[in-house]
Specification:
Blueprint lengths: L1 H31 L5 H7 L6 E9 L2 E10 L2 E8 L2 E8 L3 E5 L4 E5 H24 L9 H37 L4 H4 E6 L2 E6 L1 H15 L3 H14 L4 H20 L2 E7 L3 E8 L9 E10 L4 E10 L6 E8 L2 E8 L2 E10 L2 E11 L2 E9 L2 E6 L2 E9 L5 E9 L4 E11 L2 E8 L6 E9 L12 E3 L2 H15 L5
Parallel strand pairs: 6-24
Antiparallel strand pairs: 1-2, 1-23, 2-3, 3-4, 4-5, 5-6, 7-8, 8-9, 9-10, 10-11, 11-12, 12-13, 13-14, 14-15, 15-16, 16-17, 17-18, 18-19, 19-20, 20-21, 21-22, 22-23
Helix pairs in contact: 3-9, 4-6, 6-8
Length: 480
């Protein structure tokens, strides 16, 4: 179990090292709002001959730190509580040394390699044992294996040939279907005074659709393909599809003939479209979709409005988009509900924005955000965050959360340099004292060379295997 304890100490030290990288990330954030990379400059100004680097956590009068020293080929990680050493990990080309009180523990990299190789050999031996346990009369002969391989090859070839035939059938059917809708047959195009108007010939479109669908529903190759796939994967067979088309054919064509679709484009970038379907009888409604757009490619500007609904009624849905080099706005309205996003740009880059969501007349979310702030609120409360430089030179990240009942909670992170330390100070509304996280330059401490110790206990491959077997038995009691 000493090995397990040693590994736990190693993992604990490595977790503390992660704090260093977290602090480095905070230093990068400070650079984003105008500060230089303080961490890089801080390390550059450290004298390795007289100083060590320590990652420190301070809460009240208690200080825990990790001292980091690179000495030639040796990396030392020393954990301390209130300046008293309680753990030491040393890495060098030979292996990993762990020391605290008592003898030093050594884990060689070569030992780990040996264990992995032995595990691989044991797995191979187990597989060989399984193979040898198969009765000889049940082992296929070389001729049987060759026959099975040939049969698989023939089957694979047949599958590939069938896939190619199916692809050809689908491609042929799709091409024949599309060819029924030639633009010159179903579209009217008018050009006058710098504008083009395109309108759909509904009767011709309905005739083309009828011809295309009737031909597809009488395609024997397509019928065979659909029936085969329906038998394999389930679903409707070709006869079901034919029956459904026969039942809805006339109603579908009648609806298609009622379509009115026009599109006009002016040379100044003005685009107007109108689409409606339905006859507008007393017991039916005409469904419409209209759009009005102005697009100026040279100036990078566009304004688009699309509305969808029934003729002579308020729209069911309206979509609006407006974009230019300095702003972006998108809005979707459906009755008393809406979602709206507005973004302000600075030289084509994000600067600030607003978001509003209303559901059936009730505001669900309102947010304002920028490069260094976010404010957001809803029916259940709100949050606000900001980052700024204080008058005293600290970089302050602040988060405030408020419930609908008015209760508040806050977290404040201050980043600053205090003489020989880069400090992250954490304050919360629930705590009277701040927690301090530091990267500090400290006077060089005494760190032993663990590899030179006269009392080294080396972790052997047999010990690792024994520990692994013990852990395996704990996880799987049936293993003996």
């Amino acid at each position: 179990m000493k090995v397990v304890y040693a590994m736990k100490k190693l993992i604990s030290c490595l977790l503390v090292v992660m704090m260093l990288f977290t602090a480095a990330g905070f230093a990068e954030e400070m650079g984003r709002i105008g500060k230089t990379n303080l961490l890089r400059q801080f390390l550059k100004e450290t004298d390795p001959q007289t100083q060590d680097i320590a990652v420190q956590i301070q809460s009240g009068d208690d200080v825990a730190d990790l001292v980091i020293r690179m000495d030639g080929d040796n990396l030392h990680l020393v954990t301390r509580n209130n300046a008293v050493e309680d753990g030491h990990v040393q890495f060098n080309p030979t292996g990993i040394y762990l020391g605290s009180e008592g003898p030093v523990t050594l884990l060689r990299y070569a030992t780990v390699t040996t264990v992995m190789q032995d595990l691989a050999k044991e797995v191979d031996a187990m597989l060989e044992q399984v193979v040898n346990s198969v009765p000889k009369e049940k082992i296929p002969t070389q001729a049987e294996l060759k026959k099975a391989i040939n049969e698989l090859a023939i089957l694979a070839s047949a599958v590939e040939a069938q896939e190619q035939a199916d692809a050809a059938t689908l491609s042929s059917a799709a091409l024949s279907f599309v060819n029924k809708f030639k633009p010159e047959y179903i579209l009217d195009v008018k050009e006058e005074q710098g504008s083009v108007e395109i309108s759909l010939r509904s009767d011709a479109y309905a005739a083309a659709l009828a011809e295309a669908m009737d031909e597809m529903m009488s395609n024997p190759a397509l019928a065979e393909l659909v029936n085969r796939r329906a038998a394999l994967k389930g679903g409707k067979n070709f006869a079901d599809l034919q029956r459904e088309w026969a039942q809805c054919r006339e109603e579908t064509l009648k609806a298609v003939r009622s379509i009115e679709s026009t599109e006009s484009i002016d040379e100044n970038g003005h685009l107007v479209t109108h689409f409606h379907i339905g006859e507008g009888l007393p017991d039916t409604k005409v469904l419409k979709c209209c759009s009005d757009a102005y697009i100026n490619v040279e100036n990078g500007e566009a304004e688009i409005t699309v509305d969808f609904g029934f003729e002579d009624e308020d729209p069911l849905m309206v979509y609006e988009l407006a974009v230019n080099p300095s702003s972006y706005r998108e809005k979707l309205t459906a009755g008393d509900s809406l979602a709206e996003l507005q973004i302000e740009l600075d030289n084509y880059e994000f600067n600030s924005g607003n978001l509003l969501i209303v559901e059936e007349g009730k505001e669900e979310l309102r947010a304002a955000f920028g490069l260094n702030y976010l404010y957001m609120r809803g029916p259940k409360g709100g949050i606000s965050t900001s980052v700024r430089e204080t008058w005293s030179g600290k970089i302050r990240y602040e988060l405030v959360a408020e419930t609908a009942e008015g209760e508040e909670a806050s977290i404040i992170l201050d980043f600053y340099q205090d003489e020989n330390s880069l400090v992250c100070e954490l304050n919360t509304s629930e705590s009277d004292e701040p927690a301090l996280f530091k990267i500090s330059r400290i006077e060089k401490v005494t760190i032993d060379d663990l590899s030179a110790s006269e009392n080294i206990n080396e972790i052997t491959a047999d010990q690792i295997k024994s520990e692994l077997e013990f852990l395996l038995k704990l996880a799987i009691p049936a293993v003996r």
